[in-house]
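Intended use. Records like the one below are meant for learning the mapping from a protein sequence to its folded structure. Do not use them to infer anything beyond what is encoded.
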Amino acid sequence: MSTSGDWWIDVGIEVNSVVESCLAWRTDSHYHITKAACNLEEHVAQRITIPGSGSYARDLVSHMPAVSGCRIETSSRSRGPFQVAYLQAYTTDKSLTYRHDSGHHAKFTTALEALTGKASSFVDSLYDLYNDAAETTSSLARLEVRVPLAQAALVLLNIDEDLFCHSLVSIPREVWWGLRSLRTLVIKFVLEWQVAGRLSARSTLEGLLLTASVTWLINSMHATMDLRQASRDLIRATLPHIASTDADDDIVPFGRPANDPDADSQAETDSDADAPVGTRPRRDAMTMAAYPYGLIFLRTIRVGKDYPIPRFAYDARCHLTPKSFRFFFGVDNEDAVHDMHLAPVRVNGVSNPTRVGNRTRTPRWQDVAPEPTEVPIFSLATLGHCLDAIEREEG
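Structure written out for the chain above:
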């Protein structure tokens, strides 16, 4: 049985930086890595790494479309001579935030927690984690394939070293973790600004969309982007849109329908849990949600004296279905949120650095007198008096 193909094993390669920088896979390297690792024909490797293919998923790193890992589930027609059933390319930085809970594989918060002010401790801890990691933690790049046991000693042996050099980016630790830290800090300020505002402002659709979108952003900073049906509705309502005609597949979240005979049906289901990762845009859609600026950014946000809290600019086309709204907030619409009677949450400012903290032992007496100095009794020179010069006889 050990050589019949009924037993499967994961075989991997780990790449590290000799200067202890952070490594990550370039998005445009997925085709080349897959072709080399699986020893595939060009047209096969091209077909299973096209955005929109049912067998291919990208995992953006730190909200950068050009830097991402990938996961590929192959069919019998695209496994190659090594019979690779599954391939993944990823980085090890997710280990800092790993936690398997409620269907998630990393630490996460929710829009409802953000709305009620309960997400602040999560955001603070994540910010501190990223800052600490900048001092000590480098990320490694890994490539893994799942093959029959009989192929375990044969696969991943003849990959050109130069291919790895051209397929990876190397970023200093301070920059790598600093990007996440900075974006987390911005999200922290937005959430604190919102929860300190009046409920009438917080419960508008534009304000609630911003609350939900920043929690989606912070969760996807260190984990696979949530693309279930409710999140897809949120993405369409909160990300910038570009013309769907000739849109670049590398900057749209859902990809395009691919001419892929291996792809399963992408039809949406009624269950958020069972919804497929990829969703094809409507054929009549004039625009598509996208991230055209090199990072994931949200659409226009209103701030200033006319806006008591930050919120999205009004757009009648941007909304959530009742089902998606309930997924994020537990109720069906913004009127129901207003009826929740949420009180503003007081945001503490920077504490007084001279204040003595609770349960801090202090000495009962402390001598704070300055060092003694010589006190002048009188000074003739300062009053303009001086002694006559001593008379001397010359001779």
